[in-house]
Amino acid sequence: ALFQAASSMVLNCWGREGRFWHAVMKNSKQEVPGSTTVCAPQVCSQQQIQDEIVPIFYHKVMSSDDDSVLADVKAQELSHWADVELDFVILGVDGCGSTSLRRNLGKHTGINFTGFSLYADDEDFFLHEMGRQTLPFMWQVEAFAAKRAAASQHVRPGLIGLYQAGIW
């Protein structure tokens, strides 16, 4: 349900020719009193989202004039999983066999994994970096596409998959 709601919000925003943003608000003590998502016109820059759109949204939704919550606003554009060029994904939880599945599929000559491992053979760069986000940030999708393009020069052709044993 969480993924469907997030997916629906980003797709509805794009259907209105907008850009979908995630904003984190920190107060002057660097505490995080909240975060939100907002659909904004395509012409809005990241700086405009942070300086103008989120404060307007916050004041209207929260019916508050307390600007201390808006001491530090960081906005990042969100994307959608459909923009991540993958043939399949393996997700799992501790002890369910997803690691064994990945290792066995990895032996097949026509199956590849993203292989952007930084920490261990069984951890995938893209989702490890993302943590437990419901939607990927635009910069993550772009970084993944660039790494995939670079890797395609050195990796055998075939299906490409993403492995993350503990996404949820």
Fold and architecture overview:
The protein is an alpha/beta fold and 168 residues long. The chain is 35% helix and 21% strand. It is built from 5 helices and 6 strands; from the N terminus they run H-E-E-H-E-E-H-E-H-H-E. It has helices at 2-15, 46-62, 98-105, 125-130, 138-151, and strands at 18-26, 34-41, 72-77, 88-91, 111-113, 159-164. The strands form 2 sheets. A 3-stranded antiparallel sheet has the order 2-1-3, with helices on both faces. Strands 4-6-5 form a 3-stranded parallel sheet. Strand 1 (18-26) and strand 2 form a beta hairpin. The longest helix has 17 residues, at 46-62. Residues 116-122 have low confidence and may be disordered.
